[in-house]
């Protein structure tokens, strides 16, 4: 995805700044998630706060890990010079996603907005894992082009939470919709937008030959 070092460095700096914000907000500014939990009204299941918070911490930590490991594997220079790192880091990305999915599966029944959003999160967990596994299957078959496309689709979903909050804030504070309604629009809107954006990026990147990079050591 990043065809020159300048674009990769710029993206990495932006990503690191965002990750610092995420870690600060969740682990220092509001470690009890008070601001977020105050919107969870009318749930059928009572939130077991100590357990929920621990699961949430794991969820956030590995979501951040997926973002940074995924970004590193889009660096063309790192791929060419450090193929072994690229391969190992790819499995770090996969494990991170599996843990994010697992923790998200626990938290889904407690989703703000109820069952309609729980279904969306479970669907997201499924397609995210499917996209990632598809990327790994394709590279094992030495299909670099298809591998890259599936990785772009997978990596785009790392930013679901960011898009949810952007859309929710716009709907709730900007337009004045109820928070639960805004959050539901944010959940479904983010999934649709990110899937669309990933396809746009794939087309913008243009064709790449399967022989663009040697794959012998990527197996």
Regions with pLDDT < 50 over 5+ consecutive residues? Answer: 214-219
* Proportion in helices: over 70%
Order of helices and strands: HHHHHHHHH
Radius of gyration: 18 Å
Averaged pLDDT, please?
87
Strand content: under 5%
Main pleated sheet: none
Structural class: mainly alpha
From the spread of the alpha carbons, the general shape counts as globular
Folded structure, characterized:
The protein has helices at residues 5-29, 34-37, 49-72, 76-81, 83-107, 115-140, 144-156, 160-175, 179-205. It is mainly α. Helix 7 runs antiparallel to helix 9 (179-205). The longest helix is centred in the last third of the chain and has 27 residues, at 179-205. The radius of gyration is 18 Å and the shape is globular. Mean pLDDT is 87; it is low at 214-219.
Keywords:
single chain, 219 residues, mainly alpha, 9 helices, 0% strand, disordered C terminus
Please specify the SSE layout and strand pairing:
Layout lengths: L4 H25 L4 H4 L11 H24 L3 H6 L1 H25 L7 H26 L3 H13 L3 H16 L3 H27 L14
Helix pairs in contact: 1-3, 3-5, 5-6, 6-7, 6-9, 7-9, 8-9
Short description:
With 219 residues, the protein is mainly alpha-helical.
